[in-house]
Amino acid sequence: MCTTCGCSVGQARINGKPIESQQHPDKPLRFRPHTTQYFPTSATANSLEMLDFGTGITEMHASGMSQARMIKIERDILDKNNEYAARNRRRLAERGIFALNLVSSPGSGKTTLLVNTIQKLRDHFSIAVIEGDQQTDHDAARIRATGVPAIQINTGKGCHLDARMVAHAIEQLPLQDNSLLLIENVGNLVCPSNFDLGEAHKVVILSVTEGEDKPLKYPDMFHVADLMLLNKCDLLPYLSFDTELTIDYAHRIHPGLPVISLSATQGTGMHTWCDWIRTQCRRAAIASETHHNHSVTFESI
Amino acid sequence: MHELSLAENLLQIIEDAAHEQQFTQVRTVFLEIGQLTCVEPESLRFYFEIVTKDSVAQHAKLEIIEIAGQALCKQCQQHLLIATYYQTCSYCGSYEIKITQGEEMRIKELEVE
Ligand SMILES: Nc1nc2c(ncn2[C@@H]2O[C@H](COP(=O)(O)OP(=O)(O)OP(=O)(O)O)[C@@H](O)[C@H]2O)c(=O)[nH]1
Ligand SMILES: [Mg+2]
Ligand SMILES: [Zn+2]
User: Fold this and answer.
1) Residue B89 Cα, ligand 2 centroid: separation in angstroms?
2) N or C terminus: which one in chain A shows less Cβ crowding within 10 Å?
């Protein structure tokens, strides 16, 4: 642990104790110069000692070393993924395809929800599904049984889908213009939060058997999601699950996050969810139409 | 586990740079990792060592610059330091804060020969 500010380089703990770092974390936390420069004075702001504007890389490498030179890179580690994601998003938008990335822990009911959503929406839109799991094509088979095309991506040891995998799947799927693309991510409440797939929205699903504190324990996912579905609400009478507390926790991580309570098996709340999709889908279609009309007028000038 | 794919992505960026800038050995990789990201530096180091074996970045040192979490309170407009997403504004107690820093995962510079 850093004695200056109480931070530690990593946040991993065993029995509450930080795991010993290979690199002694004697470096302070860094702060970028702020547009409106300020000095935090709050209790959480620790001491002023740790303020260190600029990244100070030069001070960290021994100067005067033979042959060594510094090369500026300035790229996001996930640049490649983000490029693929941006390309996916552009392609989907051009064709008015509305894509959702469903994320949750294993077994929260993603596939059950998809199957029932498909049954409710298939008369309104053309639908296609991308299934992500480490192994098996069980979920894709469950989707195909509804008559909707599905591609199974097996990530092997990977714990999430990435944008490149989705780009391949998009090429292989028979996708209609102005349709709905549902992507079921690998069951994992952590890693998929980092990987943009090019979807319009991430939807996080939490089932009531998982406990109220999941938003606090796995904050990243609830932070990046645009909608939260609280599934398996049919089980509430048998559990001591506090719905309000859960939503309160979710809102601590993500103020204003919309929440829909539903039961994928019993169907309660499904119409609210399907209405949400229908509204969003229509918007995507209109946006792509406006886009095309604009390009037509543009070319005809 | 996704630190493995982060390490692979990192190596790919380094190899692209090695190709463009003609270097054969990386000594140090300078990274900025925001405090709010779900990246565990130790885990990243572990996988980086594995994936860089027999590459230009073999034995390269990972210098991880941790970037503090900062936010702007939407209620009282104060800037504050945060270590987690569920922190409230230390001035007015609001949860309505906008993250301004601490979510970065950037490769900044390479020390090469
Ligand atoms: N009681 C109840 N059970 C449900 C509901 N939704 C799903 N389940 C059950 O939960 C279990 C897991 O459902 P799946 O749809 O396979 O969950 P999943 O999120 O796709 O699982 P993975 O793909 O393995 O991560 C199954 O036994 C479902 O029948 C629900 O609304 N209520
Ligand atoms: Mg499933
Ligand atoms: Zn405030």
Assistant:
1) 38
2) C
